[in-house]
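Quick log. Single chain, no ligands specified.
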Amino acid sequence: MLYYILQIIVFQVVFLLVYDVFLKRETFFNYNRIYLIVTAILSFVIPFIKLDTIKAVAPKDFVIVLPEVIIGNPITTVTDLDKQVALEAGIVLDEPSVPIWQIIFWTGMVLASLFFLFKLLKLYWLKSNNPKRWDGNILIVKLLKSSAAFSFFNTVFLGEKISKSEQPTILKHELVHVKQWHSLDLLVFEVMRILLWFNPLVYMYQSRIKTLHEFIADETAVKQNGKISYYNQLLNQVFETNNFSFTNTFFKKSLIKKRIAMLQKSKSKKVALIKYALLIPLVFAMLIYTSAEVKAQEPEVEEITEVIEIQEIDEKVLIEKYYKQMKVYQKADEFSKIMEMTDFNILKFRMSLDEFARLKAFTKITFIDRIEPKLENGKATDNEKEIYKKFTSNNENYLEYIERTKTEEYGRKWETRTEGSTLKLYVKDLKNKTKSEEERLKKKIDLMLNDSYWDSILISDGNQSSRIEMNDVSGNTKTVTEVEEVQVKNIKKSIEVPYAVIENPPTFSECKDLVSSKEKRKCTSNKVAMFVNKNFNTDLATQLGLEGRQRISVFFKIDKKGNVISVGARAPHPALEEEAKRVMKLLPQFIPGTQKGKPVVVPYSLPILFQVAPDKKEKN
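-> predicted structure:
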């Protein structure tokens, strides 16, 4: 919400700046009126618009979540479940409190609504407690002991102290407001004032539209009465008025000078209308900004900015936000959702601030919170003490993390963390590789050529990256000394299609004879679950001393040939991650998925619930 509000404010600043610099002094009052109303509404609407033509440049990475696979010994008793919650949480979890800014925001909105209602009631009171008469479809209310003059929709309020000679001119002025529905404009801004009561730009918008209303009415009225007579009526009044922000008031001190100056101003030349064309590139630029928020999938050369984006809230608040959210999931025994929150692109060179905060929260809830009670009770193992010390002593903030990622040491560590079937290579400058870096690249190419497990190499210097695909390398029988002749082409990537919309999804060979796509999907999901149950080493529970529910999230893709590639996993224990990846790599070859008759790559996510009942005999 904060980001949405920030976008509204920024867009309104730009729109008002264009108005004040280029349009405010022109006499195209009706065009200016349209500009202010349209841009005010656009500032609320544009943040929600995502143009498909622009989003197509940066498609979102869809991952299909298969049904959860349950393995191990089921936990059936309430006591075991309570023990698991205690084991995972370590403390009693509370529901997250409402942020203070939300309390202030909604309180202000309620107060603004009540104030608006009060003004409406006051207006109704004036209408009910003063003499009135109908003139056609216009209701004229005579304000006793007043010299005020204003209108609201089809009701015109005229003070009895206004001389009879001046009343016709003022009435004509107010009738312009009525006929052109100026009150509707002001009500639009009243609603905006309620929604964004703290935003001064809305008040500036309303002030400018009210000024334009007076210019429009003056322009019509002065034609019938003459300028000198009209000036005298403006200057000779007592200036008594009721202050309603949604009514059009004839007498207002702050506007008199501007109205007279505008009446004396010569008409703008029609060529000045071209200024309104500024709105077209302005809106288009805003649409590009709001539509292109999603980055492209693994681009051939990815530019990575080192400038930290302006964040809605600071780092500590962001960590606390995700920590509380994870605690709620933990209490509800929905650990797969926690894993999804930390489901980052494992090939990325560095994390964003949002990912950094999520990881910090995950570390706290997974390790620190679980070990802390054991330390207090003196039941923590030496290994747990080391883990606790490691994570609690790490006070690195995001700025420090960014600086650390610029070092060669970090780059080399990133290179060693190979995931799935992608090799990594860190270089100091992607466009100007050193001789030793070229040699290391040749070795990795040779490894890819001679080991069918590897299918690509990701090269990065931290600021940009490129990928070499196996299919782009010719001469796969060449040795290391012949690598110079290997042609590497960064051409097109394999297309990835969401499982939910794919015409023919990847299918287990046993399911190929089923008729409908729905049946094939269900059959394949069941076969994957059966395969994992059969091949997962459940003895790991005893070896690792695990109890309760252990959540494992597995990520993989099925390529154009039906092979399982790019396998990754997240689990509370590294051994569980390795076992999960081992099992997924054993999956038999699928019948590849197709879209419009062509094979495509399909990404998957598989949650695994490893249930380990406590060994009661051992405890007794």
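The first helix runs from residue 2 to 23.
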